[in-house]
Amino acid sequence: MNKNKLLLLAVVITYQLINVSTAFCLDLGFSHEDGGRPGAFLSYGAGARSLAMGKTFVGVADDASTTYWNPAGLATLQKPEITALYASMYEKTGYSFASGVYPLKSALASSLQPSASSSFGTLGLAIVNLSSRGFQLRDEYNYEQGEGGVSETAAIVSYGMKPAECLRLEAESLKNVSLGVNLKVVNQNVNTKSDTGYGIDVGVLYKHNDSDIQHSAFSLQRINIGLSIQNLIAPKLTLIEDTDKYPLSTTLGFSYRFFNNNLLTALDLNKTENRQLKVHLGTEYTLAKLFSIRAGLDETEATFGMGVKWQNYSLDYAFAYHDAWKGYEDLGISHRFGLTVRFGK
């Protein structure tokens, strides 16, 4: 099969996958908003690449934004890397995310056994912020009291490792398994009221090396699987009297690459406490390892995006249409811009 036929087949598969899933997802969770629940700002996503793919990244987890999605993915990163995102949203609302990761290598072990894989895992640090301003404040007599604002921020310290490497385990079944944990500090500030809470997330990833997925034949054994459990220990914040506790959120993610890794498809299934199951679907097609096009669907959005990669730099853009599917107020569109820089050869 020549390259033109492969490209055509990739487009057809992507189109049909999105088409078939649309009707399915409209009833399974695409109509259910998250706004208003404690910690909702931590469900908005991170990284322009993953946002263009409908927030499907738990089973992909292959760049610095994995600190947000699945900390286990940190163990698969080979270079120090930083990524940043800014999204202009509705009504003077801005959303930003920045993350940096650093693989920990054993210099002594590498010098003694240069061919051996030696690693102490990977550290990550991320900052997430959602802020809205320009609200007109009034007192109980309806007199103007100036402008107010709302800001929510999370600082995340992450660690990911492969047990087979860090613990020198020989079990063949563990060579593709990674584990990760997030320690996070969250702060909410509403005008003059503020509080801070603390939480823990955990993640698991079963992911094959690139060398395992070079051929085009389909195999169930080459599906990458991720599991992310957010708020395993939940942050609690009290602004006035009532205490808000962040809900437990569990996401099971799958990803698969076709056509010599050029076509990536991903599916995430999310179940948050007191919320219905949500389905996220995304795809990415890469041309000549330089240019990527992406599309996806999640609980409130239809997304599209693209990315350009040159040497150690990646520039990404994501467009989202907030359709809100079943009669909710239309929030319009938003634009997300991201930059990723990798270090080393």
Termini separation comes to: 34 Å
**Oligomer status:** single chain
User: What is the second-level CATH architecture?
Assistant: Beta Barrel
CATH superfamily: monomeric porin ompg
What is the C-level CATH assignment? Mainly Beta
The chain-level structural class is mainly beta
* Major beta sheet summary: 14 strands, antiparallel, barrel
Q: Beta-strand level of the residues, as a percent range?
A: over 45%
Order of helices and strands: HHHEEHEEHEEEEEEEEEEEE
Physical arrangement of strands within the biggest beta sheet: 1-2-3-4-5-6-7-10-11-12-13-14-15-16
Overall 3D shape = globular
Helix content: 10-25%
Secondary structure tally, helices: 5
Number of DSSP strands? 16
Q: In terms of per-residue confidence, which ranges show pLDDT below 50 for 5 or more consecutive residues?
A: 5-32, 106-117
CATH topology assignment: Porin
Report the radius of gyration as a whole number of Å: 21 Å
Domain count, please report it.
Answer: 1
Could you characterize the architecture of this molecule?
This protein has 345 residues and is mainly β. The protein has one domain (3-25, 40-312): Porin, CATH 2.40.160. It contains five helices and 16 strands. The protein has helices spanning 3-28, 48-52, 66-69, 107-112, 163-166; strands at residues 81-88, 93-103, 122-138, 144-161, 177-190, 193-206, 224-233, 236-238, 243-245, 249-258, 263-272, 278-287, 291-297, 301-310, 313-322, 332-342. The strands form two sheets. It has a 14-stranded antiparallel barrel with strand order 1-2-3-4-5-6-7-10-11-12-13-14-15-16. A two-stranded antiparallel sheet has the order 8-9. A hairpin with a 3-residue loop joins strand 13 (291-297) and strand 14 (301-310). The longest helix has 26 residues, at 3-28. The radius of gyration is 21 Å and the shape is globular. Residues 5-32 and 106-117 have low confidence and may be disordered.
